Amino acid sequence: MFDKETGFMRAKTLDGQFKQDFSAERWGTDYAEGSAWQSSFATYHNFKGLIKAHGGAEAFNAKLTELCNQHPHYEVGGYAFEIHEMSEMAAVDFGQVALSNQPSFHLPYLFNYVGKPASTQVLVKQLMTRLFHTGWDGYPGDEDNGSMSGWYLFSSLGFYPVCPGSGEYVIGIPLFDRATIHLANGKTLMITTEGNQPHANFVSAIHLNQLCHDRLFFTHDELMAGANIQFTLGVVPTERQYNEQQTPFSMRVPH
């Protein structure tokens, strides 16, 4: 249950009270392979509802920023000893964004839901370029049925399916100058990137089939129809504002 006082999902006792002696860094017991930090943002179908619970977009953005800027500290908690997911989070060293494990895969993309794509873009690019390589430790964590590869492949194309079944892919930042995907229906998806430099951490513009694309997501139908997506990257972020219709899917809109 969401606790407004702490801003975390917390367990309750049988009489409906939040459990005492709470620590947001404590793993296990009430949380699987993580702590309250990794487990409090998993409302994949209803992020706007979570934003409202936090008190609005500004407060939610502040919580996400705090998530990223935390030290990767942990308490072994209910596990009673250090499991490898704890060690990997500390080694990854991206705050409490433990990309080494599945519960954190969607976290970098959540800034888009409050119209702050620049934070998503720089975070995703740094995760891709610093945590994945061809060395012996080229993955930041275990593969688990292709999930780590799936995160990297989607993210490197410039988008990620935060909420499967919604028909939307939340936009991040592409890694390659050019990518061609031959779709099962015979169509082709072409993705090109201008200004693709190591220090270009932000998306300045997106064109879909030569038309300006101002939404923070692509739809499944747009991609499967065969499309030409052109990203333009920049060194500093734009100051663009986004309305409710330009942010990704959620079942609930805050009032």
Structure description:
- The chain has 255 residues and is of the alpha+beta class.
- It has two domains: 102 residues, Glycosyl hydrolase family fold (Up-down Bundle); 144 residues, GH92 mannosidase fold (2-Layer Sandwich), CATH 3.30.2080.
- Helices cover 25% and strands 16% of the residues.
- It has seven helices and ten strands.
- A five-stranded mixed sheet has the order 5-6-10-7-8. The chain has a three-stranded antiparallel sheet with strand order 3-4-9.
- β3 and β4 form a beta hairpin.
- The chain is globular, with a radius of gyration of 19 Å.
- The mean pLDDT is 96.
Sum up the structure in keywords.
single chain, GH92 mannosidase fold, 255 residues, alpha+beta, Glycosyl hydrolase family fold, three-stranded antiparallel β-sheet, 10 strands
Secondary-structure blueprint of this entry?
Layout: E1 2-3, E2 8-9, H1 36-39, H2 47-54, H3 57-69, H4 84-92, H5 117-131, H6 147-157, E3 159-160, E4 168-171, E5 178-182, E6 188-194, E7 202-208, E8 211-212, E9 217-219, H7 220-224, E10 227-234
Parallel strand pairs: 6-10
Antiparallel strand pairs: 1-2, 3-4, 4-9, 5-6, 7-8, 7-10
Helix pairs in contact: 2-3
| N- and C-termini, Cα separation | 21 Å
* Structural class label: alpha+beta
Shape: globular
CATH topology annotation of the largest domain: GH92 mannosidase fold
Rounded mean pLDDT score = 96
What's the structural domain tally? 2
Secondary structure: helix percent? 25-40%
Q: Any idea what the CATH architecture of the largest domain is?
A: 2-Layer Sandwich
Largest sheet: 5 strands, mixed
Cα radius of gyration in angstroms: 19 Å
CATH class of the largest domain: Alpha Beta
GO molecular function: peptide-N4-(N-acetyl-beta-glucosaminyl)asparagine amidase activity
Organism: Brochothrix campestris FSL F6-1037
Protein name: Alpha-1,2-mannosidase family protein
Domain Glycosyl hydrolase family: 1-234
